[in-house]
């Protein structure tokens, strides 16, 4: 057994299963996807740690991007209730780990990424892994992918202060959006469900996540 395979088993057994993630499809997908190939080579030893992992090397002028902590990611995916016929929007896929896992659960995944280099990298890595049902598009994260809507589920791969109405409108009737809402890096995981023109939301669990670019709360106007 390779070290990385054992690390994936340890991740699932020590982080995912104890966090009330009971969907066997999610567990199987996280056991299959090699998380280490989605982080810089210098950080691969940290790929399976129980916290957010940098997806890119630090660089001046570039947004810091992270993979969600495994337990947070798994719990969000379970909240989204993704069926095998689902079309899923993955917002802020970074290097593509989340899209790779979702591609094993859904019929199709549309992953939107604002960073050109990351979008190219994600596309290449997903193809190498055979995730041919995942499409990476470049664009502003807060806008989603309206030309591909509506979606059966939408996941945000980082913390946001608020979820824009335009993203919620891209849900199918009865579908769910899941995200961590926070003004910093710690807040609450929430789920929104669409019923006609109404979007009901509820907090589910405390969660930490690094902020996604493009979702900064607008400052109040002061006279």
Report on this structure.
It is a single chain. 26% of the residues lie in helices and 28% in strands. It contains 6 helices and 9 strands. It has helices at 3-16, 24-32, 70-80, 97-103, 116-128, 165-168; strands spanning 53-54, 66-67, 87-91, 108-113, 134-138, 151-160, 171-181, 186-195, 198-208. Strand 4, helix 5 (116-128) and strand 5 (134-138) form a beta-alpha-beta unit. Helix 1 (3-16) packs antiparallel against helix 2 (24-32) and helix 1 (3-16) packs across helix 3. The longest helix is centred in the N-terminal third of the chain and has 14 residues, at 3-16. It is globular, with a radius of gyration of 16 Å. It starts with a helix and ends in a 15-residue tail after the last strand. The model is unreliable at 219-223 (pLDDT under 50).
The count of β-strands is 9
Largest sheet: 7 strands, mixed
SSE string: HHEEHEHEHEEHEEE
Helix content: 25-40%
User: What kind of oligomer do you see?
Assistant: single chain
Which radius of gyration do the C-alpha atoms yield? 16 Å
CATH classification class: Alpha Beta
Topology:
Blueprint: H1 3-16, H2 24-32, E1 53-54, E2 66-67, H3 70-80, E3 87-91, H4 97-103, E4 108-113, H5 116-128, E5 134-138, E6 151-160, H6 165-168, E7 171-181, E8 186-195, E9 198-208
Parallel strand pairs: 3-4, 3-6, 4-5, 6-7
Antiparallel strand pairs: 1-2, 7-8, 8-9
Keywords:
seven-stranded mixed beta sheet, globular, disordered C terminus, Rossmann fold, 6 helices, alpha/beta, 223 residues, 9 strands
């Amino acid at each position: 057994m390779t070290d990385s395979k054992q690390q994936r088993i340890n991740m699932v057994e020590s982080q995912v299963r104890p966090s009330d993630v009971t969907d066997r499809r999610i567990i199987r997908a996280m056991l299959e996807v090699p998380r280490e190939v989605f982080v810089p080579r210098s950080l691969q030893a940290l790929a399976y740690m129980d916290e957010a992992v940098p997806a890119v090397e630090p660089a001046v002028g570039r947004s810091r991007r992270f993979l969600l902590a495994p337990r947070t990611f798994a719990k969000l995916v379970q909240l989204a209730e993704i069926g095998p016929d689902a079309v899923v929007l993955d917002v802020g896929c970074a290097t593509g780990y989340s899209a790779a896992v979702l591609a094993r659960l859904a019929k199709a995944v549309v992953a939107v990424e604002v960073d050109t280099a990351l979008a190219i990298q994600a596309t290449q890595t997903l193809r190498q892994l055979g995730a041919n049902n995942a499409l990476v598009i470049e664009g502003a994260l807060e806008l989603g992918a309206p030309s591909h809507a509506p979606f059966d589920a939408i996941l945000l791969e980082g913390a946001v202060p608020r979820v824009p109405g335009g993203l919620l409108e891209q849900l199918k009737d009865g579908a769910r959006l899941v995200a961590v809402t926070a003004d910093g890096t710690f807040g609450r995981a929430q789920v929104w469900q669409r019923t006609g023109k109404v979007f009901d939301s509820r907090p589910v669990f405390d969660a930490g996540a690094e902020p996604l670019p493009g979702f900064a709360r607008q400052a109040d106007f002061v006279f």
